[in-house]
Amino acid sequence: xxxxxxxxxxxxxxxxxxxxxxxxxxxxxxxxxxxxxxxxxxxxxxxxxxxxxxxxxxxxxxxxxxxxxxxxxxxxxxxxxxxxxxxxxxxxxxxxxxxxxxxxxxxxxxxxxxxxxxxxxxxxxxxxxxxxxxxxxxxxxxxxxxxxxxxxxxxxxxxxxxxxxxxxxxxxxxxxxxxxxxxxxxxxxxxxxxxxxxxxxxxxxxxxxxxxxxxxxxxxxxxxxxxxxxxxxxxxxxxxxxxxxxxxxxxxxxxxxxxxxxxxxxxxxxxxxxxxxxxxxxxxxxxxxxxxxxxxxxxxxxxxxxxxxxxxxxxxxxxxxxxxxxxxxxxxxxxxxxxxxxxxxxxxxxxxxxxxxxxxxxxxxxxxxxx
Length: 371
Fold this sequence. Notes:
single chain; alpha+beta; Creatine Amidinohydrolase, Chain A, domain 1; 2 domains; 6-stranded mixed β-sheet; 4-stranded mixed β-sheet; 25% strand; elongated
């Protein structure tokens, strides 16, 4: 089916078609009978024609913009422009698939003109199955991310426990200090930390998406979740490790053991043809058998998600997922346990689904306890 997208290259579907180029302003991208057409004004026309070659047909927007400006009616200019483009391509009265992100004023204008739009939650579902090159891009992004975790371990290893604080060179260690060092390490290897990182400790670590702030405490869990984007390829990494500086309690040690075991079980269940919700249930079973809760406390989130041009994409691995895993899917496996009185523990690796099993792309051993 023909497709219509209106977005900038911040949109992952656009980057999937165009590659990792930068066009900051939204533009129209049309798929017609397998051919991609990109409508831009004179500011980007020459540069994009040079960069994209014959992959995408670049069309100059200006003549169609003049047509749109002459149209009667109270539709937005970009809505009229969509009508002009679809009319030019003889697509206005054909069925057109659009993403959920298509602005409402454009959708209303096209429908008012007789257009037939079908909304798709995933306009390029093939994105979920990675090519060998895409897998390699993710692998390289993960490899570069290792550098940030080595830095965290270096900082914790060189720091000292002074009463109820962790100090590095006489300065109390905070989440903000560690994040700054993470960003520096990532930048050095061409990774952008667009959404910052999670470095959360104690009660904050018991909230899965708490970004973390303030002092890092000894003998408490410190969750470090880093999810940068590679500037060159546009693909993401996503890794989580949990540390304790000092000595964890017996309860925390048992939590860590259960999380590790649950993650190993989840990875062992992954292969092409397996339902994603079955992988999640296998992880949940490990927690229940280990004496930990699943639901409102304990293990409170899904097992994982797809990873690629976005941090979170299809397929999702959780209780309600209807996805069946396919060879070429790249997914995270990130079980965790969260209790206010004990903190939180999460371990996250990135896994390639194969015909007969799973390949761990993360391949990074980290210590849990750093004395």
